Amino acid sequence: MSSVIRKVALVGGSGRLGPYLLKALHSDPAFDVTVITRTNSTATFPEGTKLIKVADGYPDDEIVKAFKGQDAVILSLGYQGGQHHAALAEASKKAGVKRLITGWGGNVANQEAMEIFPIGKKVAEDIKALEAMESPEWSWTAICCGLFFDFCLEVGFFGIDALTKTATIWDDGEQKFSVTARPTIGLAVTKVLAHPKETANRRVYISSFQCSLNEILDGYKTITSSEGWNITKVTSEEMVANATENVKKGENVMYSIGRLGLATAVKPGLQADFAAEGILDNQMLGLETNESSHEIIAKVLKA
């Protein structure tokens, strides 16, 4: 069987990550990309994008037909779409697809981190299921990219607000963690597709850079001014306990799940710094990044 991957189907071409994956694929002449979208979706795509529409719920017969003839399928499903992950993976295998690409989380190999963060735990379980599906004709890759750095800045995920000059710093703020900007995630996908043998049936770890909460705060101060900031210090144990309790009670659930997601990056001992752990795959992929936290913070604040 030829290992060359050219025809690529993208499920989830809109949302937080999908447009960046689509742009990277469109920009690389090595790939012929088709977006699989739901019939009732109101998402729009760049002119000339190949589309296949399927019914809501991704019925198996329609999905298998849509996947036929594709070399690879990329799943960018988001939180709500995660329920369809297993069925879509099975459909890709039925359709004769060579490679399934999924993931988009942190270090899913760290058991403590996955127990803290319910969405991460679901991703880890999905990857475990893919391992059981492996065959000579079908393989998978899970991309572990840490937090989406640019998106996290846009929504105030790190607890730092330039307008009010307030920040919440966990522990001493020095814990390093890997993050990736979404354009770099898109580029990394093309690199994975170009290295099918090296990336088969494994987690691939990428990052734009490693940073800490203190470094992010320093970036804000450099751009806005270092004066007048109100800094609140909290402990990761306290934040995890409170957020976990809120999820159990059904109070501020999405915010609390977000805090648990941040905990997997900033709580010590969870192996969130891919470079320090010796698991970073940028070099293997030929993924070169010249980004810095301050540069991306400046872009977001100016926008």
TrEMBL record:
Alphabetical list of InterPro entries matching this protein: NAD(P)-bd_dom, NAD(P)-bd_dom_sf, NmrA/Isoflavone_reductase-like, PCBER-like
Gene3D superfamilies with a match to the protein in the record: NAD(P)-binding Rossmann-like Domain, UDP-galactose 4-epimerase, domain 1
Classification via CDD domains: PCBER_SDR_a
Keyword terms: NADP, Oxidoreductase
Keyword hit for NADP: yes
Species: Glarea lozoyensis (strain ATCC 20868 / MF5171)
Source organism, top-level taxon: Eukaryota
Protein name listed in UniProt: NAD(P)-binding Rossmann-fold containing protein
Example of a GO MF term: oxidoreductase activity
